Amino acid sequence: MCVDAVIVFIAYTAAFSVRGVTVMPDFGQTAIMFAVISVLTVAMLFLFGVYRRIWSRTSGHDITVIVNAIFAVGVILSIYTVVQVPRPLPLGIVLIGSILSFVGLVTIRYRSRVVSGLAWRWQAIWNRQFPEQPTRVLIIGAGEAGQTLALRLKHRFSGNHHKVIGFIDDDPDKLNMYVEGCRVLGTRKDLIAIAEAHDVELIVVAVHKISGADFREILALCEETSAMIKVIPDVLALMKNTRSPELLRDVLAEDLIGRTTITQHEGIDLTTISNRIILITGAAGSIGSELSRQVLNYAPRKLVLLDNNESGLHDLWIELKARFPEAALIPVLADITRLRSMKNLFAEYQPQIVFHAAAYKHVPMLEDYPSEGMRTNILGTRIVAELAREFDAERFVLISTDKAVNPSSVMGASKRVCELLLHTLDCEDKGRTLYTSVRFGNVLGSRGSVVPTFNRQIESGGPVTVTDPEMTRYFMSIPEAANLIIHAAAITEGDDVFILKMGEVVRIVELAERMIRLRGLRPYKDIDIRFTGMRDGEKMHEELFNGYEAMVETAHSHIMKHNTWPQNFDCSTFQEKVDRLAETEFASVEQPLETLLSIIDPQAVAVSTPA
Question: What pTM, to 2 d.p., does this model score?
Answer without folding.
Answer: 0.66
